[in-house]
Design a protein that fits this description.
Blueprint: E1 26-34, E2 37-44, H1 50-53, E3 59-64, H2 81-91, H3 97-109, E4 113-120, E5 125-131, E6 137-142, H4 147-161, H5 176-184
Antiparallel strand pairs: 1-2, 1-3, 4-5, 5-6
Helix pairs in contact: 2-3, 3-4
């Protein structure tokens, strides 16, 4: 039943003639339910014939296609929270578990990620997030951070977002040398 709700997003071309939709062009959407679950198809105005499709329709609607806005490129590409999360999940999620968790929470608060489920086992809690725009799924381990660990992890996130490559060592206690450096500074 879970796959029944996996509906593809609006297409950029007509499902019948394969003509690319233009900005502000009207399109018609057809939602059907079949053996594989829900299926969406989008049609341009000339290809849309409701009478031919009424018997197979679960739902239909008319919409306006809008091209996504062009993104202005920054002179120096700074990593944002989303790109950093993606990079860390690809690189080594276990090494950066605390930073990944904080980034996921940040993106959830920004309403970019939506927590869909929480799975618990004896020693692990996994949080399942869905990207609201792309529908991608992210599985993030909850490290159950304590309040006294948050400041260090937040600083690691800030450093990584500023382009630093500092590692998340929040699980490790500072060495005596580090403690004396902190008290001196």
């Amino acid at each position: 039943m879970a796959q029944d709700w996996d509906i593809k997003s609006r297409g950029s071309q007509c499902s019948q003639c394969e003509k690319q939709f233009e900005d502000l062009e009207s399109y018609y959407a057809l939602l059907t339910f079949g053996e594989e679950g829900y299926e969406r198809k989008d049609y341009c105005q000339p290809c849309w014939k409701l009478e031919d499709r009424e018997n197979q329709a679960f739902s239909t609607w008319k919409g306006t296609f809008r091209l996504p806005p062009a993104k202005a490129e920054e002179p120096l590409q700074k990593e944002n929270a989303e790109s950093l999360l993606r990079r860390l999940l690809e690189d080594d999620p276990e090494e950066h578990v605390n930073v990944i968790y904080i980034l996921a929470v940040m993106l959830e608060r920004k309403k970019l990620l939506d927590e869909k489920d929480v799975r618990m086992s004896e020693d692990t809690t996994l949080r399942i997030y869905e990207h609201k725009k792309t529908g991608e799924t992210f599985v993030v381990r909850d490290p159950h951070l304590r309040l006294d660990e948050l400041e260090h992890v937040q600083q690691s996130v800030i450093d990584l977002l500023d382009g630093g490559e500092k590692e998340d060592n929040s699980d490790n206690e500072p060495t005596p040398d580090q403690k004396s450096d902190e008290s001196a500074g």
